[in-house]
């Protein structure tokens, strides 16, 4: 193929523009491996990038899309050969480097991994950065000694991509998961099918630094006042994995949960995780996502030309589950 379709973001003279373009293969940036992209996925960060709602993109023009999976076409690195099925998440794709919302991508070999055992391209992208992040959160809680016997685990932003995977993974590992959501009436049954034992409404802001201890651990996708409230409700010695800011990037709290209850706040970043952690997380994801879990996890597949129209829904919190992009 001499030309390919790509979503391009640009800001000439600070005038942001996003459009699907047909480009020659020669327009791709340098890299060791040329990949024909089969699927990408639409993450919260991608929705921010394509709507220009936050400073996600650090270099224009750019192809957004922080995730991609596809087939190697050309490789100048001995780890990959034409025909290999590969994927990449993070590493600055769709932020600093051209990412997955295109039919072709040229990448550094260091960013690529073989598809996880037993998963195809579409499943890998259904998991994508969201599922990977949820797995990293679970692993962080485990490392702090949070076990299924410790007590209930709270997941906030429960109906989103990270939240949905957090519930599935925790439940599959035997944890008692409580889902906090703004959409209990519409999506409570969905959250229970994922494995939540109880559904609660979104947490109210609190001024109290310490409240009744309720949770042995938590995975927080929301940030801001929600995270402050979560911290005030954690058991003595419990842990909170913080990964998101769907409710805001600020955090106003006090030292009391930390110095009086020994609470651990665990920061989770999916973008720059080293390869060893990625391999571990993805092998666990592939094993935990059994057929019955694939059946309950809701996702939709959209076309590349629908990304611009669908992104505002993600930011408005009116979509749920995962959005896979067929390239
Ligand atoms: P989604 O948009 O799929 O889900 C976010 C969920 O948060 C929504 O479904 C909604 O759940 C809840 N929510 C949305 N708006 C608000 C609000 N104003 N106040 C409270 N809750 C809200 O996003 P993802 O799951 O993909 O990502 C979640 C967060 O994690 C994002 O902030 C994203 O940037 C971050 N993230 C961070 C990563 C990292 O490496 N640290 C990697 C991946 C994501 P409900 O209606 O059920 O309450």
From TrEMBL:
UniProt xrefs under CDD domains: MDR_yhdh
One function term, GO molecular function aspect: acryloyl-CoA reductase (NADPH) activity
Family matches, as InterPro entries: Acrylyl-CoA_reductase_AcuI, ADH-like_C, ADH-like_N, ER, GroES-like_sf, NAD(P)-bd_dom_sf, Zn-ADH-like_protein
PANTHER family in alphabetical order: ACRYLYL-COA REDUCTASE ACUI-RELATED, SHORT-CHAIN DEHYDROGENASE/REDUCTASE
Pfam families associated with the record: ADH_N (PF08240), ADH_zinc_N (PF00107)
Domain called Enoyl reductase (ER): residue spans: 10-325
Protein known as: Oxidoreductase
